[in-house]
Amino acid sequence: MTRLPQPRAGQPEVSFDLSSTIQQLLYSERDTMNITEELRVFVIDNFLFGQADGHLSDDTSFLEAGIIDSTGLLELIGFVERQYGIKLKDDELIPDNLDSIRKLSAFIQRKIQQPSLQELYV
Predict the structure, then answer these.
(1) Alpha helices in the chain (DSSP H)
(2) pLDDT in tens, 59-94
(3) CATH tag for 2-120 (out of 2.60.120.10, 1.10.10.60, 1.10.1200.10, 3.30.70.2740)
């Protein structure tokens, strides 16, 4: 944890996790295509046993297609948090963010590019 200079009287003390901030800056350079391909490889390797058979488009619903169940979703969330250095909040665990490669890739891009102020404060 890195501490900024002492605040003036009446101002809150600010600190942030430097390693997390650096990781977010590094990943902000990634483009959507790389993230999309990394997600595709992970899903194929871990849930389709290496066989996509042409049935996995960027818009294929993981849940409707039976690709990922609730246990698989936990595995996917763990991968995303480790791979991209982000933390998913409970209110972000919704189909609009996680239910296809396209939705998940867009969600990751948003998380990487716009860290919340709460993530920077202790």
Answers:
(1) 18-27, 32-47, 70-84, 95-98, 101-113, 117-120
(2) 999 999 999 999 999 999 999 999 999 999 999 999
(3) 1.10.1200.10
